[in-house]
């Protein structure tokens, strides 16, 4: 073929999370011979599923946001999400219980949200309109000119077109200061800032650019995919197979040696030869556990010094009886949540007065729980690296269930018929997440855009995709990350495929 590879070159994708599945699909669509190796019995990565006694829990993500990104992704394969799963826009989108007894319900109707805002502060409805109009403009700009274009290094930002726009994004200011320019009431600020936990950050350490998340939340809406998030994972796996990807599960890669045109992957199922590798295992883990020391781009000190997003205590509870107080998505907030954020980022400890989240998918989808029961997931963000020995976990579980009874009026304890949990240890062991972070590298100023790991590793022929790379955390961003990783592979190795070596244009 004259491509620098032996006959019939192959790409192996290590890991079947959203980024890995996306990269595999794009590469196969371009004509590459792609094999995906996943260490667990199912693909999906952090978007896992737990089935027990008639209950089905999505173990990781539960908010289907940015439907536009999923549509764009499937359109690149001449498909649409509806070819695989139906979407239901949630109404209410979510309910917030504050621990002073107050509660607010947020619905898809923007006028209703304005009324909620106005009920806390005169002029807040109008301020919300202004905030969201700016967020929408910045979202369109950020998606079109940064996220979808896949600017990786600082060099890519030195663009006469883009530079004048950066001040408009107030890239360097933090969210706390930015939101305060619009609304002052602490509860309203929480309503505009809570979305930062999706990015693994806190209002004081996340750049104001991410105010675009309120456009995602309040304008674009919150959806539930048929079959839950597991249904989306199945759709991605089906798409991959349709494009010709070979997916092998229960194969753990233990070592990656070699370089472009000659990689050897040592796995627990024997050695595999491949020409190129895309790792969806996070770069910190790939460097430290899979590469030889001389092949690493960074030392341990570098990875230790990064700011990681929260870990989480996850409770998966099958509950008997009704749960009228809870919506599909429910947030429980202390009126002052700063101490909780401090306990994650500044002074790692179990939070005393936590802000947390509950998902009850059975409110929308009766197939996920037996009749007369609900499938409840509780997510409490906590600091990565905490010692989550059984005693500490049990103590914290009790305090969260107490808190729930006291502040959301939901006493679960006598009604739990199925219970599982996950915490720091599971995230560390199951996914190789540093310190058991659940989300990966937080979107701090210094871990955003050009300062976040890109897709090319230091080893020629090795690429990265997934939440730790650009553009970042969350299912939609990981789909885009897979697109850009595939584009980098094809740009560097056009001889991999016959014909034009590109991912579909926007
Ligand atoms: C609790 C929780 C809640 C979340 N909530 C949301 C939400 O509501 N909405 C949202 O959009 N996002 C949410 N996220 C974030 C989102 O789930 C992630 O950003 C995204 O799924 C990460 O995808 P990824 O491409 O980085 O791959 P990962 O999910 O990290 O998958 C990597 C895969 O690689 C495999 N692997 C690793 N090492 C090896 C090896 N050596 N050999 C073979 N395979 C290997 C792993 O088993 C895994 O399957 C949440 C995450 C968590 C944990």
Explain what this protein looks like in three dimensions.
The chain is α/β, with parallel strands linked by helices. It has three domains: 145 residues, 3-Layer(bba) Sandwich (FAD/NAD(P)-binding domain), CATH 3.50.50.60; 176 residues, Polyamine Oxidase, Chain A, domain 2 (Alpha-Beta Complex), CATH 3.90.660; 102 residues, Guanine Nucleotide Dissociation Inhibitor, domain 1 (Orthogonal Bundle). The chain has a seven-stranded mixed sheet. The site of flavin-adenine dinucleotide has 36 residues, from helix 1, strand 14 and helix 14.
- Under CATH at level 1, the class of the largest domain stands as Alpha Beta
Query: How helical, in percent, are the residues?
Result: 25-40%
The CATH architecture classification of the largest domain is Alpha-Beta Complex
Distance between the termini: 29 Å
Question: Could you tell me the strand content as a percent range?
Answer: 15-25%
**Average predicted local confidence, pLDDT:** 93
Identify the quaternary structure here.
single chain
Count of discrete alpha- or pi-helical segments spanning 4 or more residues: 14
Structural class computed from helices and strand pairing: alpha/beta
Which shape, going by the Cα principal axes? globular
Bound ligand species: flavin-adenine dinucleotide
Strand order of the largest sheet: 7-6-15-16-17-14-18
User: What is the radius of gyration computed over CA atoms, rounded to a whole number of angstroms?
Assistant: 22 Å
Can you summarize the main beta sheet? 7 strands, mixed
> Any idea of the CATH topology of the largest domain?
Polyamine Oxidase, Chain A, domain 2
The stretches of 5 or more residues where confidence is low (pLDDT under 50) are none
* Whole-number total of structural domains: 3
> Total strand count, please?
19
